[in-house]
Amino acid sequence: QIFLGALSFVYFAKALSGSYLKSTITQIERRFDIPSSLVGVIDGSFEIGNLLIIILVSYFGAKLHRPRIIGAGCLIMSAGTFLIAMPQFFMGRYQYERFPSTINSTISISPCLQDKSQTPLTTLEKPQAKTNAGCEKEAGSSMWIYVLLGNLLRGIGETPIQPLGIAYIDDYAIEENAALYIGCVQTVAIIGPIFGFLLGSLCAKLYVDIGFVDLDSVTITHKDVQWVGAWWLGYLIAGVISVLAGIPFWFLPKHLPKPESRKDSSTSSEQSKFITEDNKDQYKSYQQQLKIAEMAKDFLPSLKNLFGNPVYTLYLCASIIQFNSLIGMVTYKPKYIEQQYGQTSSKTNFVIGLINIPAVAFGIFSGGLIMKKFRVNVLGAAKLSLGSSFFGYLLLLSLFAMGCENSDVAGLTVSYHGTKRTTDYEQALFSECNSGCACSKNDWDPICGENGVTYISACLAGCQASNGSGKNTVFFNCSCVGTLESPSQNSSAVVGPCQKGNECPKMFLYFLVISVITSYTLSVGGTPGYILLLRCIKPHLKSFALGIYTLAIRVLAGIPAPVYFGVAIDTTCLKWGSKRCGGRGACRLYDSSALRYVYLGLTLVLGMVSIFFSVAVLWVLRKRSSPQDETLSANGERGACGTKSRKDNFVNSDCLIQTTYWPEKETRL
Description:
CATH topology of the largest domain: Growth Hormone, Chain: A
Transmembrane segments: 41-62, 69-90, 178-208, 228-252, 312-330, 350-370, 382-402, 507-534, 546-569, 598-621
Order of helices and strands: HHHHHHHHHHHHHHHHHHEEEEEHHHHEEH
Number of helices: 23
Number of domains: 3
Protein name: Solute carrier organic anion transporter family member
Oligomer: single chain
CATH architecture of the largest domain: Up-down Bundle
Membrane topology: Multi-pass membrane protein
Family: Belongs to the organo anion transporter (TC 2.A.60) family.
Largest sheet: 5 strands, antiparallel
Distance between the termini: 30 Å
CATH superfamily of the largest domain: MFS general substrate transporter like domains
Region (Disordered): 258-280
């Protein structure tokens, strides 16, 4: 019970820091002025850390002191989390684009600069000296590398938790309760993302340089597209929690007493080759003399044994493709909600943490409960896993109809005359109404005209005058605003982009409802999938099989998925930001329709391919569970266990029929 509680808390800690990273994706992108594809590389560095040592940890860790290895991993994980927050303390203060009249200036400056002599140098082309100074300050933006390295270290520390922890529970729990215990651990772990996203929501409302600058001097709000929250603060909190989570494992024993019902069970512990219950003293003395080289001898045969199992191999392929779909979807879900429905980072994280994540927790727990209550066998677990995936992706299909149209942005999505954009956007940014203004196409300081159209800057809107300062600035006599409906020169605009269309809030509500149901449906198959994975392999290979499984997910899904999802999302960008020294920065505005089709389409296609492999798993299991296969194979090992016997035979066994004992206590499907 102590181990179960400690492992649950560790799962909570690692899930909190992992989900907090997801919640800060857009903040990091804006803070370091980098594209989504590069943010995807940062996100994938966690999986690279796993890749470096997961095979060694999962294979050799099974023979060593598993609780202490998990405790050491927690310390490494916390060090990485602290490292992610470090750039905030070494780089300069965050600088955002603002027209001079909005920065608490007492002098009213015309945004449309017909006479360049009246304008400060900061709004026109800067001298070379100024540009060079800006470039030197901007060198701090390369400190995103420390975020990448910290996430890499987090991945290394997290490595032993899953393969060693889950296998430890499966070794010493009463067999029919193992599914429920694993379901409990995963359910408690879901509380981590809830707090992670809620923490992300709180920090997104706090200004990035809180404690370093006077907040009264900040002229943007958390609703502004250039706003960056205190992303670094949550990492400090998550690091402390990781340290606390690792403490109990240093005081737990290497082995626990085996339940009476499992001492003679065919599902022996993964250390059963080394443990003899009758002669523990002899075992201890043998264990002390065991050499690493002797353990390594069985590595390649064990690997061959795993991949020679068609059920394991097919399920591994299905999981890899499905996790590509899910990891990509989860990584960019905050960005999708922000861009598609015009929500703030704070509200987006709050909604995901309070609505989406509990649905996932309930789904995972439901899967474990169904497995225990109905005593579902391996074949039933495969059916449950397949059914949840099929209906989950079917529901996801309906989200294509629940999007918002592009906001009306002059020169990008609509022309200055109100028609849809048909020409290249850079050329379309300039029109007759702003031809007399000295404007830059690289600026991004959006204003909302009284006609409901967003303009990239007050200059491009042709505004001749302004009143007020900071967040309350109002622009007057905007020539481009008046060309759509009213030719009057009294047209005005306010700071910030216009809100999405009237239908968008309703679509966002529909999206949330379907998203919650989809999350629950997909999660029901989580625990049955774990049990299928554990039961389709030989008992002493459990940790190794889980390690290989986790390795494959990290390498073939966790690393590439955020990167190619980010690259695909970058193709839908309509307006890129510009760095002070030249070059492309972070995206400022996306094409809503293209983003919806790319984001949801990629998720759905990958999901459907994974279902194809899940069907293959079910087909192989059906074939192997037929009575004709209930024979001894040529090498003398027991064949597949039958699935047609009564449920009351499901006692202390991996299969529905309690098989007789044979020398190596190995069960095959």
